[in-house]
Design brief:
heterodimer, A: mainly alpha, Helicase, Ruva Protein, domain 3, 64% helix, 0% strand, B: alpha+beta, Tick-borne Encephalitis virus Glycoprotein, domain 1, six-stranded antiparallel sheet
Chain lengths: 172, 671
């Protein structure tokens, strides 16, 4: 009996590992180093009006993104770093070419606000829940059964228990 | 036809105005005949708008170029299906289509509630009629679909080539259905505030509508992403464009609302918050329309851009001010003594789920509007593109996925650490093992490792929950496992349908993460007979052939795809040239498998050198984004499906001609 339970646990563990591998494997197999030119051109907005980044412009013969990609490739080949390439394009076309706001000055608001809002919301939720908790009456044994928390069901009123079991049966 | 259409729209406006007065006066003065008359007026309004839609569709199909709209968006050679879909391809037509959906839904609500909710229904119908008046006012006075041209052109200007795609035949109607149906719960929420019904009857009365709206918003977003994937030819499906964001935000808020109302139904809490959420969801649908049509924010999607922005903005502000005022005036009565026992409870998990969902919606809203704000404050126009949204929403998405695993398994009211440890042990082990396996196999991106672990954790929790339910059924009624699963879902459709939706979300999330991190791109110029390698695939360019119709010229390349030397597919990417508009377009070829998508774009053809240039993307697991979407839709259908007990209660109520109890009016189902 004990042996078969041990065997069952092992099988379950093996199955968990197998399922986990199955979930992770396709990504691992597909994993490939990201092209640096791709990374850099993700940081720049195409100026042809497509609204996409230089990396993703959907015009195959785009007059902006195609030469820009070649130029980025060339600049990286000459040993320039990503910030240097970005700075070059920014000095040439202005801030609008960046595909995300900078992290300086007023632009910092763009980055901070969403997280600040979630944080403030989190504090508000925690505070409100704390207040509600302090207003709540002490739990009863029936509450304990209902909530699924640890409790001994045998302590409950037999009539209540019968009703519970009947309702459960109807529901199932 | 144009005259009939315009006349019908004018009559519809009159009927909508009458129905508001009759509904409000009838309800306030308790004159049932007046509210019945108002209901009839709404049905007549729907009939009038249907006539107008019929008139415009007829003109589109018959290429009646005396109409400015028909001449602007169709041509003689445009295929019939796209002549029909041109109904929502332009400004006036899409507004008319929107109005039509609104009047249909309003009529349905009037019919559904003809013998129930006597207190709230007249006010809810008045709100819906008020929204209809705005749209009908636009169609009658500002942007008229039946305006005639002084000189009739020999041919029309044709439909934008990007809209000549089957996904465009279903994407806008799905999205519009989602947008418009959100008006129904909003109208009932407003009506509940007007009449002072502070229980959850407005939620129960409109629960199906809310789920219906969410279902179509999901489909609308999914179809839109698929359209972008197949038509725009950049290998992606989501660019965080303002119009995409505008469709995504109501979806997020509706998702929060659908979770939050469960707390109100269960514990009579969060009344104000639920009213805020439904107000936000409706407001965001208007905001989305404002963005699409105003041109305030530049967007690749603004096919129907016009000068309607100020009207929509005014209406949006009016709605926000009126609704907020109404809500604030009732806040005191809406407050109830809240019972909340523990942070370790399902209520708490749902609250944090709401926080994250609304947080993501705010982040998207903020990022979408920030360029306008920046221009106003600094005088500098900046771009807020995918890198911003990815970085901001990435961590929030992880938190959401985590809560998706925790929420359904944690008990209402309170849990103990011991019971949590027991419940979550297996899913947590599964999640961690997945992450470790991926790490050992060579994956190093922390985000992907975390995402995979959390996805596995959530799937684990759902499996645990199904196993628990199946065991209980088998213990009590001795069923086989498949029968137990089917009965479990059938008898608790809301709960288990919800789990199926969660499975879909997790699969879609895996697809999104994998495709975002591991997409590879190869660009090659090759001659006929040349081969090139993309990942494990070998592609041979076999040549090009050209076909021509009166509408479009197509140059289609043929590529044989081989794997390990064996041919596995023939792919035919093409370049299209739309003659009437003199515009080129691309038609991509996609070979989709659960492991990866091979996506081929014919980027260019050089007639002189004979070189064809191909842009090829290899995107892992993107299949699961679409599969996840289908599973989400399937789960939603299960949630909406009326279950046996519900039908029995409704039938009993109808037999005895008694007003339905709140529970019977909508989906009592599981949970």
């Amino acid at each position: 009996m004990r042996r078969s339970r041990k065997l069952g646990t092992r099988t379950a563990a093996l199955m968990i590992v197998a399922c986990a591998c199955a979930l992770a494997l396709p990504i691992v197999l597909a994993a490939a180093p990201i092209v640096t030119m791709q990374q850099v051109s993700e940081g720049l907005t195409c100026q042809c009006g497509c609204g996409l980044t230089v990396a993703n412009c959907n015009h195959p013969n785009c007059e902006f993104s195609v030469p820009a990609r070649d130029q980025i490739d060339h600049m990286l080949g000459r040993g320039m770093s990503e910030p240097q390439v970005i700075a070059f394009f920014r000095s040439k076309y202005g801030e609008k070419i960046l595909s995300a706001p900078t992290t300086q000055g007023f632009n910092l608001c763009a980055w901070i606000m969403p997280f600040a809002a979630v944080l403030a919301g989190g504090v508000l939720v925690a505070f409100t829940v704390g207040r509600w908790r302090s207003n709540s009456p002490a739990p009863t044994p029936v509450d304990a059964l209902e909530s699924g928390a640890d409790g001994n069901a045998s302590n409950f009123d037999p009539e209540l228990r019968r009703r519970l079991e009947r309702d459960l049966h109807d529901r199932i | 036809m144009p005259l009939i259409g315009q006349l019908a729209l004018a009559l519809a406006l009159v009927l909508a105005s009458y129905s508001i007065i009759a509904n409000v006066v009838g309800a306030r003065a308790s004159i049932p005949s007046l509210t019945v008359s108002a209901r009839h007026a709404l049905w007549a309004m729907c009939a009038m708008v249907t006539v107008a839609v019929g008139a415009l569709v007829s003109s589109l199909l018959h290429s009646d170029f005396s109409l400015e709209y028909v001449a602007s968006y169709t041509s003689f050679s445009l295929p019939t299906i796209y002549k029909f879909t041109a109904l929502w391809g332009g400004q006036q037509g899409s507004l008319l289509f929107w109005t039509w959906l609104l009047t249909i839904f309003t009529s349905l609500v009037a019919f559904q509630n003809r013998r129930r909710n006597p207190e709230m229904t007249p006010y809810a119908l008045a709100v819906l009629a008020g929204i209809a008046i705005f749209f009908l006012g636009m169609l009658n006075f500002v942007t008229r679909p039946f305006d005639l041209l002084a000189v009739i052109p020999a041919d029309g200007q044709d439909l934008n080539p990007l809209l000549q795609n089957y996904w465009m035949a279903i994407h806008p109607p799905s999205l519009y259905t989602g947008y418009v149906s959100a008006s129904v719960p909003f109208a009932f929420g407003a009506a509940a505030l007007m009449v002072g019904r502070f229980d959850d009857s407005w939620i129960r009365s409109t629960r199906r509508w809310a789920i219906f709206s969410w279902f179509f918003l999901t489909l609308g977003n999914l179809f839109g992403a698929r359209w972008a994937y197949e038509v725009l030819g950049w290998g992606g499906y989501w660019a965080w464009d303002p119009v995409e964001n505008a469709a995504f935000m109501p979806w997020l808020v509706m998702t929060a609302y659908l979770h939050s109302v469960m707390i109100q139904e269960r514990k009579d809490m969060l009344k104000v918050w639920n009213l805020v959420l439904i107000g936000m969801a409706f407001g965001l649908t208007l905001f989305g329309t404002f963005i699409t049509r105003s041109g305030v924010i530049s967007s690749v999607h603004s096919f129907t851009q016009s000068g309607l922005g100020p009207y929509f903005l005014t209406f949006l502000i009016l709605v926000v001010v009126l609704y907020s005022g109404l809500l604030l005036s009732r806040v005191r009565q809406l407050r109830t003594p809240a019972e909340f026992e523990s942070y370790l409870s399902r209520e708490a998990a749902f609250l944090f789920n709401n926080l994250v969902l609304v947080g993501i919606a705010f982040a998207v809203f903020w990022g979408t509007l920030f360029p306008v704000l920046s221009e106003a404050v600094r005088g500098v126009k900046i771009t807020v593109g995918p890198p911003f949204f990815d970085k901001v929403n990435g961590p929030l998405a992880l938190a959401l996925i985590f809560l998706m695993g925790v929420g359904p398994l944690i008990a209402w009211r309170r849990s103990s650490f011991d019971s949590l440890a027991k419940t979550f042990a297996s899913p947590a082990i599964f999640g961690v093992t997945t992450g470790v396996c991926a790490f050992v196999a060579g994956l190093r991106e922390w985000y992907v490792l975390t995402a995979l672990s959390l996805a596995a954790f959530v799937l684990g929790t759902i499996v645990v929950e199904f196993r628990r339910g199946v065991s209980a059924r088998r213990h009590m009624v001795s069923e086989s496992v498949p029968t137990a699963i089917v009965n479990l879902i059938a008898k608790n459709n809301r709960r288990y349908g919800g789990y199926i939706i969660h499975i879909g979300v997790v699969l879609a999330f895996i697809g999104i993460v994998a495709s975002a991190f591991f997409k590879t791109e190869v660009k090659k110029s090759v001659k006929e007979g040349d081969t090139f390698q993309v990942g494990s695939y070998e592609l041979e360019y076999l040549g090009i052939h050209t076909t021509e119709t009166p509408h479009v010229e197509t140059s289609r390349a043929r590529i044989e795809v081989r794997r390990n030397g064996k041919p596995i597919a023939m792919m035919e990417p093409a370049k299209l040239f739309f003659k009437r508009l003199q515009q080129p377009a691309t038609a991509v070829a996609i070979r989709s498998t659960p492991a990866s998508d091979l996506y081929v774009v014919l980027a260019g053809i050089d007639d002189q050198s004979g070189l064809a240039t191909f842009q090829v993307f290899l995107t892992p697991l993107v299949f699961w984004l679409w599969a996840g979407g289908v599973i989400m839709a399937f789960g939603t259908v299960i949630v909406m499906w009326p279950n046996v007990r519900e039908r029995a209660v409704i039938a009993a109520a109808v037999r005895t001609s008694l007003p339905l109890e709140d529970d019977a009016q909508v989906v009592p189902g599981g949970d």
